[in-house]
Amino acid sequence: MPDWPTLWLFGAAAAVLVVMPGPNTLYIITRSLQQGRVAGCVSSLGVMVGTLFHITATALGISAVLLSSAPAFNFVKYAGAAYLIWLGLRTMLTHKTPSPGAGPPPNKSLGGIFCHGIMVNLLNPKTALFFMAFLPQFVDVERGTAALQICILGAVLVVLGAVSDLTYALLAGGFGKWLHANFRFWGSQRYLAGVVYIGLGAASALTGTSRK
Fold first, then answer.
1. Which of 101, 119, 125, 178 is the most buried (most CB within 10 A)?
2. Measured distance CA(154)–CA(105) in Å, rounded
3. DSSP type of residue 106
4. Rounded to the nearest 5 degrees, what angle is found at the Cα of 33, between the Cα atoms of 30 and 36?
């Protein structure tokens, strides 16, 4: 198990990293603005579950296998990009007639939102690359099994990420509620959300196009 100085150092470094908005955070913010706080919080829970998968894969060495294979890496990357672009197009094409002064659209499928959060995180090989590069830096082989230490450090990272993501979801959801009072915004919100999802997908596909 990592010693306390290592845990404190890791926690400080991880806190800085999780607060900085990345693709997952932008997804959560967009979902919160579009569908409210509950949807944002549920999507953040889905992202956390995806993070647990990445941590487990890192501890078991699965991520190393994925990242050592350019075809596997690119397959996951392009699958994730395609998923985000599909999500964006579906959001833009889903038309619901708004009424002035009404709130956000009802969250009819929180299970679906939860699964979307998992998939957005899981189909991002750059997240696996981050964990494989970051977590082992704080592992001391003299203090026990590396896999166990990675799981412990990952748990700390998940807790910090949960606090950060849920905060973003609550703040964005509150702001979204205010925006939904604006009839003109509500009429265009699905296009704004769709553009964000498509942009995230395009950025994922166009950056780091190969691994050697």
1. 125
2. 35
3. P
4. 120
Alpha helix ranges (H) inside the chain:
4-19, 23-35, 37-60, 62-68, 70-93, 110-122, 125-134, 146-180, 183-206
Distance of CA 44 to the CA centre of its chain: 7
Which DSSP symbol is given to 142? G
Cα pseudo-dihedral 79, 199, 25, 54, rounded to 10: 20
Would you give per-residue pLDDT tens digits along the chain (212 residues)?
Answer: 777 888 899 999 999 888 888 888 889 998 898 888 999 999 999 999 999 999 998 888 877 776 677 787 778 788 878 888 888 888 788 765 444 444 455 555 888 899 999 998 988 877 888 888 888 888 887 777 888 899 999 999 999 999 999 999 999 988 877 766 665 555 566 777 778 788 878 877 776 544 44
Burial class (CB in 10 A: 0-12, 13-18, 19+), 99: exposed
Please state, in angstroms and rounded to a whole number, the distance separating the CA atoms of residues 150 and 143: 12
Q: How far apart are CA 209 and CA 13, in angstroms?
A: 28
Question: Length of the chain in residues, anyone?
Answer: 212
Round to whole Å and give the CA distance between 178 and 135. Answer: 39
- C-alpha angle with apex 45: 55 to 22, nearest 5 degrees? 70
C-alpha to C-alpha distance for 60 and 54, rounded to whole angstroms: 10
